Amino acid sequence: MSESVIEVSDLTRRFGAKTALASVSLSMPRGAVYGLVGANGAGKTTLIKHLLGLLRAESGSVRVFGLDPVADPVSVLSRIGYLSEENDIPGWMRVDERIRYSRAFYPGWDDVYAEEPRHTFGLDPMVKIRNLSKGQMARAGLLIALAHRPELLVLDEPSSGLDPIVRRDMLGAVIRTIAHEGRTVLFSSHLVGEVEQVADHVTMISRGRIARSAPPEVIRESHRCVTVRFPEPRHRPPTVAGVMRWESQDQEWTAVARGGSGELEVAVAGWKARIVAERFPSLDEVFVAHAGEAAAPAEDV
Ligand code: ATP
Fold this sequence. Notes:
alpha/beta, four-stranded antiparallel beta sheet, binds adenosine-5'-triphosphate
């Protein structure tokens, strides 16, 4: 099935003078795991809020299951499982009360299916939410998001501040969900490695813009990581078309470049330098390069 679950077209959103999303377009066909990766403040939550109908598109359009989530929230939200970073479950409720409360909203709620993660996560039904540890609280949120067998599971920074064991549960649950044919997962995180483990497709968002959107191996293999040894130490990197980021090690500088290393090879010959290593970058290196972090001021040679 190639029908898109999420279709965002030319979406722009400003908060006062701040542009949180700039002309974002995305198409997410059914039945895959999509990773949305961006640094803090990149625009991930703002995008997700549009998908949930919590924000109206200022310009551009948002469709989920072919519907406008603002105009038709019941039809859209009843088919989505959502877990936010805040995981705002009322503290006074017991785990079993919280489960009953959510079950009332969803005709598709599956008691047997819900019992499995409750058991796996070791969640005591009689414990009040406020008395759960941070990890157990996140697990409770995940159980609620999963148990009505949503067609689309949206996890917004689900593992931030959690320990690796809880994160592993989260990822396990994601994989289990997609195992059910035709279900789609949107998983937002600033942890590139975590997204890379589970996502079929990675969308990198940087300062409100989509920097790259493709399967992780396609993103990696469309970049090169090239280490150049200069005849003498240099303090600032040269400017070369296609190079997004340089990192220095005295006489050796490592570039992350878009596409191949052709431009760099030509430049290296001119500098009387030589290429000492060349490989595909990690997804994290590509992400950091796109985010433009630690970009050194350029100097022409
Ligand atoms: P984080 O990982 O920190 O949650 P994010 O990628 O989810 O980041 P957003 O929360 O979408 O980022 O924020 C994008 C930008 O828009 C940020 O600069 C943020 O300060 C700004 N922003 C978001 N919501 C509002 C709001 N209601 N009012 C003003 N500015 C906002």
